[in-house]
Design goal:
It contains 20 helices and no strands. By secondary structure, the protein is mostly helical. The N and C termini lie far apart (48 Å).
Length: 482
């Protein structure tokens, strides 16, 4: 693969040749942090305040959500260097080469959500800043133009591929961090850490609303679970597991900067539910231009990290679509969602619903992947993972007609039980009141997956060939000792 960022990447989801695995864990950190050091994360940071929480309660919920989400996310960086493909395809080792379409669905759900957030908030920020600078109130027309320009820019970066994304994220990490820190001077004089919140809690009580805030924040790190392999596949397997685990974990801890920016500034705007408009209204004129820079660079960074992986993955499900064509198709659908969500529906409520779905659908999938990784002792056959993509049948991971029913029988109930227990403004399950109104959906979905999959594998052992020679020898040695 060429190192030139101006050449369109030719790699799809076929294994990256070992000679071209030239990235390092710090590149993974840069992409994961750059993709989250943006207005999209800032918006998620404002939601706990919009839910009615005080500054300190919102900050505590955010820290808990980021740390928990980062712990769940980090192991997803381990697959790419070994399988040399993305995580959706890698999941075929555990869900079956056909069953791995579950991962493709999850990446699509995440991509549409975060691509929409990035373009929406970036477009609104540009329109608001233009009004402050030039007195132009373009209304819906100006916002629509801004959405279109940013969406096209994101598509261009995705089409050029991985190296171009690295360049964008290098810029995003540096500029985004500096400009958010500059916000201390722009808003510091007005900020009051004793902000008590509206008291009008989104779910009626403090603890149910606080848990809702934690789950909302967790959507950010967990959303990267389906995408880490898109980037870690360029890292040689020789790098230590510790460094691979540390890169995404530290990247998510670093997102406390944009989250904190969102929390603090949301206490200053008149209506946290209309944050972007309120922020541009209270911004000093000298900060309007930096705000536009954060919006544009941040929109590119978040949009590309979400859209790139989904285009990559769908090109494998539909072989007639190249990576570029699949990216254009998914991007077009996402743009339609942005316009309908912003001009027809309630965008904030739509994002809340999608964030809930991302957490409850993706987290049990990730748990099953992690348990499978431990059971296989990190052994994967890159060639047999490509069976479905290449139109073949058979191989180590064929299981039953390409589906490992053990993993499916764990993921489906885990997701279903989570949704039944969900208690959010948009998604309320019939078991929402089972814990006094506190949303226990995440605990239920994680525990169900963590218990069901190992039990199913124990009772109905997986085929010996999926473990590989080295892993089978180790497993037999452990069994003999027992």
């Amino acid at each position: 693969m060429s190192d030139k960022v101006t050449e369109v990447e030719q790699h799809g989801i076929a294994p990256i040749p070992p000679a071209e695995q030239t990235s390092r864990p710090r590149d993974l950190f840069r992409l994961a942090f750059g993709g989250a050091n943006t207005f999209a994360t800032i918006i998620l940071g404002t939601l706990p305040i919009a839910y009615g929480l005080s500054f300190w309660a919102a900050l505590a919920a955010t820290v808990v959500g980021v740390v928990l989400g980062a712990l769940v996310l980090s192991p997803m960086a381990l697959f790419g260097p070994v399988t040399r493909t993305n995580n959706a395809v890698s999941s075929g080792a555990h869900f079956g080469v056909v069953g791995r379409c579950v991962g493709s669905f999850l990446s699509l759900l995440t991509a549409i959500t975060f691509f929409a957030i990035s373009v929406w908030v970036s477009g609104d920020a540009v329109a608001g800043a233009a009004q402050r600078l030039f007195g132009i109130d373009g209304g819906p027309a100006l916002r629509a133009v801004a959405y279109g320009v940013i969406a096209i820019a994101v598509l261009v970066v995705c089409i050029y591929g991985y190296r171009f994304m690295l360049l964008v994220n290098r810029v995003a990490v540096t500029l985004g961090t500096l400009i958010m820190l500059l916000g201390i001077f722009a808003y510091g004089g007005s900020f009051d850490p004793s902000f008590a919140g509206s008291g009008n809690f989104a779910l009626g009580g403090f603890w149910p609303t606080w848990i809702l805030a934690v789950l909302t924040v967790m959507a950010n790190p967990i959303s990267f679970g389906a995408f880490l392999g898109d980037w870690s596949r360029y890292i040689p397997a020789a790098h230590s597991r510790r460094s691979l685990l540390a890169a995404p974990f530290l990247a998510q801890l670093a997102t406390l900067l944009p989250f904190g920016f969102g929390i603090a500034t949301a206490t200053l705007v008149a209506d946290p539910a209309d944050y972007v408009t309120g922020l541009t209204a209270i911004s000093p004129l000298w900060y309007a231009i930096p705000l536009i820079v954060v919006a544009l660079i941040g929109g590119l960074s978040t949009g590309t990290t979400a859209l790139y992986g989904t285009g990559l993955d769908f090109s494998s499900i539909f072989p007639r679509l190249s990576r570029v064509r699949a990216t254009l198709l998914i991007g077009t659908l996402s743009v339609l969602f942005i316009f309908v969500g912003n001009f027809v529906l309630d965008m904030v409520s739509s994002i809340n619903a999608f964030a809930t779905l991302i957490v409850l659908c993706t987290s049990p999938w990730m748990v099953i992947m992690m348990i499978g990784y431990v059971q296989r002792r990190g052994y994967y056959d890159p060639a047999d993972l490509q069976v479905f993509n290449e139109g073949r049948t058979g191989g180590r991971y064929w299981f039953h007609r390409g589906v490992n029913w053990r993993a499916m029988a764990a993921w489906i109930p885990a997701t279903g039980l989570g949704l039944l227990c969900a208690n959010t403004p948009m998604i309320t399950g019939p078991l929402a009141g089972i814990a006094g109104g506190v949303d226990i959906s995440l605990v239920v979905t994680l525990c169900t997956a963590a218990v069901a999959y190992p039990v199913l594998v124990k009772v109905f052992p997986e085929p010996r060939e999926v473990f590989g020679d080295t892993a089978m020898i180790a497993a037999e040695a452990v069994a003999a000792e027992a």
